[in-house]
Please model this.
Amino acid sequence: MTSTAADPLPSWREGPAKAAILGFLARVSQEGSPDVIPLADRIAVVDNDGTLWPEQPLPFQAAFAFDELQRKLLTEPELTEDPMVRAALVGDLATLMAGEHFEGLLRIVALTHAGMTNHAFREAVETWLASATHPRFGRPYDALTYRPMQELLAHLRACGFKTYIVSGGGADFMRVWVERVYGIPPEQVVGSTARTTFQMREGVPVLTKTLDFLFVNDRDGKPVAIHQFIGRRPVFCCGNSDGDQAMLQYTTIANPLPSLGLIVHHTDGEREYAYDAVSKSTGQLVKALEEAPERGWLVVDMQSDWLEVFGAS
Amino acid sequence: MTSTAADPLPSWREGPAKAAILGFLARVSQEGSPDVIPLADRIAVVDNDGTLWPEQPLPFQAAFAFDELQRKLLTEPELTEDPMVRAALVGDLATLMAGEHFEGLLRIVALTHAGMTNHAFREAVETWLASATHPRFGRPYDALTYRPMQELLAHLRACGFKTYIVSGGGADFMRVWVERVYGIPPEQVVGSTARTTFQMREGVPVLTKTLDFLFVNDRDGKPVAIHQFIGRRPVFCCGNSDGDQAMLQYTTIANPLPSLGLIVHHTDGEREYAYDAVSKSTGQLVKALEEAPERGWLVVDMQSDWLEVFGAS
Model:
């Protein structure tokens, strides 16, 4: 941690949550501290939807998928025969979100995220981000990251942490913009994945997106993917829902190194959204919240702990 | 690149191969060079077996698997009913290596790499490395890395490259020792993988190795895994066999950035092994060698280009 008079977390209100974060990071990163964590082990894993940006009224990648679907229907009207496409068109989220892994939603993701080259997919995401705006806030989606969490990411890095996104969102979707938006390189994104294919096409290497071996990076999948992609246990974990409970457990329970788990609690219906047990989108938070006191996970109250939610537009 | 009078590649004989490597790395990393590659894009991918250490008379991980199998037979003698186990016991490599992805060998890997916790597996690998020695060279396996390649890895990093291993070997196997042996952290290892399971067992998080969703990181799988794990195209690629051809293509063909592909050619039967078209182990090199001149891939002749092969014991 660089010693400086400046407050690294100016958008956080002074109080126990801010003090606990600053205290932990100082304790594990300052030379001479008895609890210092070796640099190589300073691995932080942070969920994205609902932790770094909103997931209401829909996860933003679902908004992308619905917009892409509309665009696709212009040339492939027969897609409306698919019941999940019809559900998407009428905004029937209940149908799309049914099932443990949101199978209906994934069907729409499938129609809009496979069968094209990775290059074409990147361009579709960039085009969408440059034009689409959030229905409530009226800003581009990538202008809606939480300022307090951006400050936390920057402070983690200043304390020598390697910051990873570990999200149920698609790795290919996030990797288009994470470096620009969060300062996190694509190789530090662990997301849902399916296997691309490689071929030489007219003498040029081409990667094509498929749905084979779809891996949904949620719940127990998160520690599994952390092991597969990172290969060691994190010591800092942020999430906001029961989908993050397993990686909070993996980070903090019986870890031989000091560790901190943190839950962003959506309590601010005025500035953002208030939900936990009941969400019409993703992000249900019940079990992880129940487990938090026993584990010492820090529950951040958005309404009282954050002075600002979004940065200036 | 740090400007220094010291030779960063002292184990390489002066000649075209050494000059080409040093010239490329200077050209893409020196401030003010018109061909400088942005730091974030300096991604190097390097095969392991036959590129950083030998793969004769067997890939070293296969030697580990055979030794583990012997140990396992003490308590599970019924395993000898498996024809692939019998092939392993009599050293019948032809049977084990048959099939595009060495299915027989993978069966043995399966018996010795699944059904235990990741922690127990790590301990087995560490115990083996601390006791087993190579049948010809009489040294521990991890004392047999190629000194010229160790120097190249260090020089790549001095030039701002992030060095990744991209190997057909198991990620879990390599991650036990790569940091100590190559200075490469576990999160920069892309290898063959299967999915672990996560569970809370007696209140403690446990990862257990399985064979589900086995992914063999070889041939076309290499660019596929590079995309899945790293998410961008490398600009430097080293391999030694046809299993590396696809990642050499992916790195060097139609890449908008300057790139270099390098093939370690095993020509030194006296100090190491001489093989290309005919190998009794892995490492056949025919098609990639044919394609090298057209693509400008640099073929390193171990016998003439390397002053030393292994470091001091």
The longest strand of chain B covers residues 162-170.
